[in-house]
Amino acid sequence: MSFRRSLPFLILLAFAACAPSMRMPAPEQPPNIVLIYADDLGYGDVSANGATRISTPNIDRIAREGLRFTHAHSAAATCTPSRFAMLTGQYAFRQAGTNVLPGDAAAIIPPGRVTLASILKEAGYTTGVVGKWHLGLGPDGGPDWNGEIRPGPLEIGFDYAFLMPATGDRVPTVYVENHRVVGLDPSDPIQVSFKEKVGSEPTGRENPELLTLHPSHGHDFTIVNGISRIGYMSGGKSARWQDTTMARVFASKAVEFIEQHRDERFFLFFSTHDIHVPRVPHRDFAGRSGMGPRGDAILQLDWQVGQVLDALDRLGLRENTLVIFSSDNGPVVDDGYQDQAVELLGDHRPAGPFRGGKYSAFEGGTRVATLVRWPGVVPAGRTSNALISQVDFPATMAALAGVKLPSDAAPDSEDQLAALLGRSDQGREYLIEQATARHLAIVRGRWKYIPPNQGPRVSANTNTELGNDPEPQLYDLEADPGETRNVAAEHPDIVQELSTLLGQVVGEFPPPRASAE
Ligand code: NG6
Ligand code: CA
Asked: Where does ligand 1 bind, in terms of residues with CB under 6 Å?
């Protein structure tokens, strides 16, 4: 910026310094950060990425007013490892016990560990998380649902937490605010087990006639609100959530957090339940998409995004808030309930042009919708092909907030601020995709390599193409983004290089505990 061009800005800045109460956009100041994080939403599930049978105007608004990424990835193809990596800046395969967790698991990010939240807190942000957690709560042995639930988010850098502890399809089906279950009656204590039945409440297996939503696989334990879940639960009747109002509850908690901290610098991790199973949208959305509950849940997700964007507008925070929208893993159609998602899918392609989905080593597993808006700083209406990963968020946000990371923190996280803000199309040199802790793939430039892997090609449960093949797989993502033609035999040198590189990356930071996964 030339001095002449920057002079008016400097005068404004000096003026603002004399009048601290005056609100004005100051691009040099780190912005508020709102990370809207959907669950199981595919690249192709939003109209900004080409969906035609479903319309997501609020999500699309972020794309129109910001930057749309075509090659941005979650760190893993399922929730827990993906979120672990995003918050810690360390790939989940380096730490045992980071697979999809049961609902009563202990916290897997120990107190004192540097996280995305602790970095921003250190930089002066007020930090909050609203929505799905699924990173465990409590000490070894799991949380005391009837007492103080800690450690959890508050012990790793969040000032405020309003949580669904694990997933919508796992017990306990209660909200946790900071260290307590919300609305718990002490005379009706909560008991939870993932091993044996507790209490006498009916289960989906024993009493299917009581169900309003039937499982297609698994999900046949305790029935709550007519839906059988994963895991057994008894008690806590007054604290149980209603599935149909969950989106409203989360959206209002998110907006409340923004309202309360409008005069501070804040970071909000808004982690929706939608569009994970069970998909039981509010009547405002039920039946509206024509695609059954999965499509209706996308509309409900879009509504929640709209609630947040409207709040930012209303409070005059639009200009100085960085909004990031993404998902924790790729899409799945049948994830365990008979909710017509398969029957009503039609020609909708949840993963867009990509192959596979949730659980998969193909691109559909981790290549997710990613949109970034910061008016006046991030160019509007542009597309970026930069290769980035959510594991980069800690180092990137540290750079944005102007704090230096301790040398041993966030070891896999790269500062990709230039890419995130649309100033560079470079991104990462290479990136690891985790289908499972033992099933990794690597992307470098145009090439994607998936090592030989035993195991079913297609999941018997979800019908997802998992990317397993006893032969090495190499795809040219530029010529063949849909990974339809394995060219490993034609490029043994590239296979060798990528296999060596993957081995080096995996070996770089040996897991602290023996990897049993
Ligand atoms: C699987 C569940 C699936 C979903 C997933 C976690 C069965 C058969 N399947 O084990 O329904 O809950 O875990 O999803 O139980 S995630 O998005 O949180 O990773
Ligand atoms: Ca998920």
From this structure: 39-40, 78-79, 100, 134, 167, 169, 217-219, 230, 276-277, 329, 335-336, 461
